[in-house]
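ENTRY TYPE: paired fold submission
RECORD: A
CONTENT: sequence, then structure tokens
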Amino acid sequence: MPYNPKLLCNFVLCNVKTPQIQPMSRYNKPVETTWRSILLQAGVVVAFVFLIVWFLPTDGRSILHYDVGRPWPYSQFIAPFDFPIFKTEAQLEHERDSIRKLYEPYFEIRSEVENEQVARFREAFRTATAEELSPIYRIFIESHFREAYDRGIISNDDQEMLQRDSTQGVRIYEGIGAVARPVSQLFSQKAAYENLLHDADSAGLSRGKLSRLNLNHFLQPNLVYDKEKSESEWKALQATLSPSSGMVLVGQSVIDRGEIVSEQAYQILSSYERQLAARTDSPGGQHGVLMGQVIYVLLIVLAMVFYFILFRQDYINNPRCVTLLLCLTALYPLLTSFLVRHTLLSVYIIPYAMLPIFIRVFMDSRTAFLVHAATIMLCAISLRYPFEFITTQCVAGLVAIYTLRELSQRSQIFKTAIAVTALSILFYLSIDLIHGRTFMAPDSLTRIDWSIYKHLIVSGILLLFAYPLMYLLERLFGFTSNVTLVELSNINTPLLRTLSEVAPGTFQHSMQVSNLAAEVARKIGAKEQLVRTGALYHDIGKTVNPAFFTENQAAGSINPHDQLTPEESARIIIGHVREGERLAEGERLPRIIRDFISTHHGHGLVRYFYVTAQNAHPETKLSTDPFTYPGQNPRTQEQAILMMADAVEASARSLKEYTEASISELVNRIIDSQVQAGYFTDCPITFADIQTAKNVFCEKLKTIYHTRISYPTLKESVADQQV
């Protein structure tokens, strides 16, 4: 065998012990960096940071965590500045109730209403006869009208307002002066009318006759509520209330480490935080908060960016991956900020564990956890007490990644949701117990809050929607999940069923290649289900002209290539790649599967027909273009595995003798020739991976084409005795 430096290099790299290389480095194929790409990436980072910070709550976040009845966990607290001790809302409400008894709303008296309504009454019944309305009735009615207007008539709505506010008295004014009058002395329109009918009964007059006169139309309010004066009076009374009950001076010691937080200490600490928030709300304070938020978000985003630069540049170079990561990473902080800003629901209802599930299914576990942890920290900036939130959600994300390593069945999502919910509840319970909370504590401050656990259960239920949402993400971003791959690997799909019927030899070849490639992928850590499904479809183009491929030709049949020139035969053989791409596109197979069709021969040569044509014309050097496949060389591990498995399986069928030596020689010769041809220079496969693939192919082919033992024949005499 002639000396070949490339094969020697291959042998050395596969067998000599070298320093361990980080597994992730295979995804960091160097790409040319330009100022344009740098500026584009920087612009994306700036836009992302701006989006997150824009929607963050701007009010001051608490930096202290304390409860009444619990020890103060920090060092001695000394007031850094003077601040008032603000009264609690309950204290302020009690004082408001006290001054509300002194509050008297203003009503303006309109004297002309009495004369107008009495005149209207007289005019309405001016022509009435004595039988219809006798003088005694007229005198009785007018006297009661004037009595009611003297006491004061207010509208029914105003009476309801006074009763609702428990108002005891009002102030009635006309011009400048105002007099106080108890509400009990006033008439509403309804009360004035009922009082007239009641007095009529006492005077022996007919209530029915008075009712038919519709006298309530002449009882109109002569006291009108003055909203402006009343509100001014209420504000003046409220101004007498002091919002604080004392002052804390700078340098004053409030509480020391280990002391129990009393109601008074709690009120002082709350007042300090309130005053600190007021300072933060000032223009200078707002700028400080904004700067802190920008730095916080920027550092987290840069941490993610450097992770991808160092370990997964293939994601950065893939627009689909970048878009998916940006959308998912921005969605959860924005949703968290929205709930916190509007105080709608607890943030624990949001199924944060859905994020690592999606990234794990479409990318990898390391990326899933890093992005999940970064997203949780971006969400935590909106919360008052983020410790429990960060730890609980990080544990939930880890459980989701561990339990969903390969999503291929719907039941896996259900099991993951149960595991995430159970572990989240258990972990949060441990935090409650650490903080001293118990199940049956009489004090609500030391009793476990079960509402959080209900929210975690709801979050677990919402996690089940990851399955239908995954299909939506596949369509939006062009990804392909293992669930889709499993569905496509069903041999009852239209393309595979047609392949098995029209080209049964090719179908059997594809099945064998699928098994070989999947075993190699499992050994080297590639995507097993992906290469298995891609192998099933890689030769579907042979259904167009199945008889021109040897695996579909019956033994002893006429070879149709005998009637064609080498160029025509090569065109038909090469055409199965284009035909396969056309059929796959017509069936709307995912792009990742169509790539297996176009790369399984790479930019290789149909050597048999090229050599035949060259031998027919030895005097001229023929061009290789008519005999070269139009596809690209493999760009992923899985595509490289398929190329090797396809060539090895097809060539193994032509062996005259299946021995360990012949199979090993065949496998090494074919794969070494592919390495020499440079088919794998564009994909992240190592020499160690190639050596592993060789070993797997040798073992599997020996099992498939094992030498059968020869059964002994019976001697004729023994056979006759048995008969």
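RECORD: B
CONTENT: sequence, then structure tokens
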Amino acid sequence: MTYVSLYRRFRPQTFTDVVGQDHVTRTLRNAIAAGRTSHAYLFCGPRGTGKTSVAKVLAKALNCKEGPTSDPCGICEACIRIQDGRSMDVIEIDAASNRGIDEIRDLRERVKFAPVEERYKVYIIDEVHMLTQEAFNALLKTLEEPPQRVVFILATTEPHRVLPTILSRCQRFDFRRLTIGELSGQVSRVAEAEGIELSKDALRLIATGAQGAARDALGLLEQCAAYTGGKITYDHAVAALGVAGFHKVVEFCDAVIQGNLALALTLIRELIDSGHDPALFLRDVLEHFRNLLVLATCGFDLNLIDAPETALDSLKRQAEVLPKALILQAIDILSGADAEMKYSASPQLTAEVITIKLVYLHLSPAGEGRTLENQTPDSEVPDRQGAKSQTEEDPPAVPSTASSATDPRTGSSPDKRWAAETKTTRSKSTGDLPLQESTAPPVRLSLDDIKAGWNHVIDALKPGLEKTLYCDDGIPVELNENELVISFHDDVRKELASERRRKKSIQDALEKVFRVKLAVSFILTDEPYNVQFHMEPGDGLFDEKAPSQASQSKDTEHAEEIIGDINDEGFQGRGSGDASGDNGSCPEIREEEVAESLRKTRDAVREHPTVKAALSVFKGRVFRIDV
């Protein structure tokens, strides 16, 4: 006889067999008992949570010989036919492969016929979100007013892709992911029925790896049973499922805590060489640090963590050693690892770089094998303004007026200050800060400091589009407490830089260079930088002479804003007619008046907001002004 998978053999046959969806099964059973079943249902939720199984149970309940009943017998001809998939009146349609309007038109023609064998004709349309727009529209009228004794059950994992007009015609039931406890109970029952010996830690690993899906949990159980032959321990489950296992995660975190970079990199290499996915391993490490933070904050409450019993001692030991703020920083580094690994050309290199960040996050300022127990408390580490860290070998600097002499705001330039600070390893005090103080910037920065080290920030960006954006554009213009405002000349570059991933890149670069975590916002520059204005006289009326510096400043002082079109009535009234004029002034005086009027007009053109906006939008320059 052909072997049948566990998830098919142990598929729920009644509403009572369904695990973890009581809000759905109870509503359906009450509706059937009261005779208030709907003509259209929408079952939505994650994969493997029982949507299709409940749809088949509902079809059996409606067509059972004893029914309609909330508890189908499972032994009558109708129940057996539906259970075996032989019923002519319970039709399962895969919308992923039958998604066109022709298939829906065929369904509309067939739905008119009365049931052949059963009491109700039931259409189960799986992955309904895959239907095309035209197919949805063709289904609307039939779904709203189907013939008597016809029930539609639509199932989908992406309800947001279903047309609102379809949603409004269905009763919607949202299936939820199963908890670790519910999955463990289901797997345990199936293992007992199959005669499979399963340890508690292996059971928890399988339930955790299923990620809330009962079908996936039974598939993992079947995989482990095939690997071991029937008796499954935690180590067997780790080997069968291809995960690193908790012991490797603990060993890696111990290496990170001790500052042992060689051991941490060796573990990463060994895992990758043995075929493990580095992204999955770093995800396990992230979950481990999450458990450490929960234990350190909420106490040793086992209900809040998902870990094997053999790992509890290691968790408790590390949670007592690590400061909360340091755990938060490690979580911040690991949170971005998933996205980095996804788009990385070399996952191994990315994993090793993240490992280096974690190790140096825990190192002392001396940087060589200093463990957390040997760290100096925060109170002994002064701020950045000229004083050395207490953890350095040199004696601590005594706060005095001499220390302020090295402050860039009172003496040295921002460039020198930045260079001196980038050579000093970050003080461990950033890791030992209390949790409530970790959100405040640990150092004092000014806008001049950031501008002075801006080239170093750009160098810290990854090669590619992020670095290109700031090489060609992007200048820090304002610093409001812990928020840096960056101005862009080009609106397209501004939009690209505002994307979440690129915004995080510049924040990480700023933190790497200045050791300060800054929020970042972007604005568009009102006027493009370095716009050159080339002035030429109009129609040969006047050959412009280069004005002196004194006359330029005077002209600028008397420049006026243009309202509407630019017209110089004084200049137009004095055309190139007689040289004497009405007031008898000499030609030299008139020529100076004309020149001054022309200069004023051109300055007004230069300062006009419309001209500025046009130059910014079209990236142009003033080539000629005709007056």
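NOTES ON RECORD B: The first strand starts at residue 40 and ends at 44. The chain has a mean pLDDT of 76.
STATUS: closed
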